[in-house]
């Protein structure tokens, strides 16, 4: 059953969109990730314009992150002070990112930039994740029960403007979370993702936060950054398709329930390797599409 998407200006099957949402929701529940870095490429694969795919996915990230924060808040696993510092950097980064998005769209390069950014980041993150997962698996088999430090103090921990984050048991420079939030804000605007796949490793290995509070704090920051991106994209670029977002969100909510039930049956090391492989697979498809011959070489577009 076809439905017309007014902002994307294309017609797509309702069950296809619900299915995509269900698949990404299932993977989110299975791997514990937001799924934004997978949803946007999938939307590109079915013909959704990159600008609309990015902005609409940012809208979905808001809804999916709220439920996660509430769950972690009840368990006391959210460092609100750290989240606010990350949020300041995130607001600055997302505002700059949307302005850059508008500029690239005006010069007609936004589609190329979105694909390039996805290929670079997914390739890098997927490769590092796969390598680290394999190393961890081999190390655990050789030395079972041995634990390693998550982070080491370096010169960056001696930067000025230090703050004490009691929930995270840290006394570090506020410049570190500000910079991390800024980078994630730019990525949220350009890629339409929450940025958790970059922020979570940075919070663990760079800031040295306890793993127990990382996810909840990351989701807290993502809610407001993604909401800022959605608002700016809707007002400045008019690229948020609410109809598509609602269908994707409906499928994601259902799929996440099934994924969360399956996660306890698969070993953690296997899950990380599967996630890395999936990220590299999506990256490979985007890379091939960059060099593939388009179906129509010449396209006429009326700019308003």
UniProtKB/TrEMBL annotation:
Subcellular location: Cell membrane; Membrane
Pfam families assigned to the protein according to its UniProt record, in alphabetical order: TauE (PF01925)
Transmembrane region(s): 12-39, 51-73, 85-104, 116-138, 170-191, 203-227, 239-258, 270-288
Keyword tags: Cell membrane, Membrane, Transmembrane, Transmembrane helix
Cellular component GO terms held in the UniProt record: plasma membrane
Membrane topology value: Multi-pass membrane protein
Family membership: Belongs to the 4-toluene sulfonate uptake permease (TSUP) (TC 2.A.102) family.
Protein's recorded name: Probable membrane transporter protein
């Amino acid at each position: 059953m076809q439905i017309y998407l007014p902002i994307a200006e294309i017609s797509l099957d309702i069950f296809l969109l619900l299915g995509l949402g269900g698949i990404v929701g299932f993977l989110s529940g299975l791997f514990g990730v937001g799924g934004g870095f997978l949803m946007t490429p999938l939307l590109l694969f079915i013909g959704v314009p990159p600008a609309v795919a990015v902005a609409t996915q940012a809208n979905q990230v808001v809804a999916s992150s709220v439920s996660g924060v509430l769950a972690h808040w009840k368990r006391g696993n959210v460092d609100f002070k750290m989240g606010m510092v990350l949020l300041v950097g995130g607001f600055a980064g997302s505002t700059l990112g949307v302005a850059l998005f508008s500029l690239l769209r005006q010069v007609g390069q936004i589609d190329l930039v979105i694909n390039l950014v996805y290929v670079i980041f997914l390739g890098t993150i997927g490769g590092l994740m796969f390598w680290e997962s394999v190393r961890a698996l081999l190390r655990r088999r050789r030395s079972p029960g041995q634990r390693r430090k998550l982070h080491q103090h370096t010169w960056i921990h001696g930067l000025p403007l230090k703050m004490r984050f009691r929930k995270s048991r840290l006394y570090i420079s506020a410049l570190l979370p500000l910079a991390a939030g800024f980078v994630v804000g730019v990525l949220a605007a350009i890629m339409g993702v929450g940025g958790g796949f970059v922020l979570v490793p940075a919070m663990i290995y760079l800031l040295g936060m306890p793993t127990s509070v990382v996810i909840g704090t990351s989701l807290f920051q993502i809610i407001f950054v993604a909401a800022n991106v959605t608002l700016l994209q809707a007002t400045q670029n008019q690229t948020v398709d609410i109809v598509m977002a609602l269908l994707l969100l409906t499928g994601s909510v259902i799929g996440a329930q099934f994924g969360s039930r399956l996660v306890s049956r698969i070993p953690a090391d296997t899950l990380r390797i599967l996630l890395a492989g999936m990220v590299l697979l999506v990256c490979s498809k985007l890379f091939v599409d960059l060099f593939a011959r388009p179906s129509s070489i010449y396209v006429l577009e009326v700019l308003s």
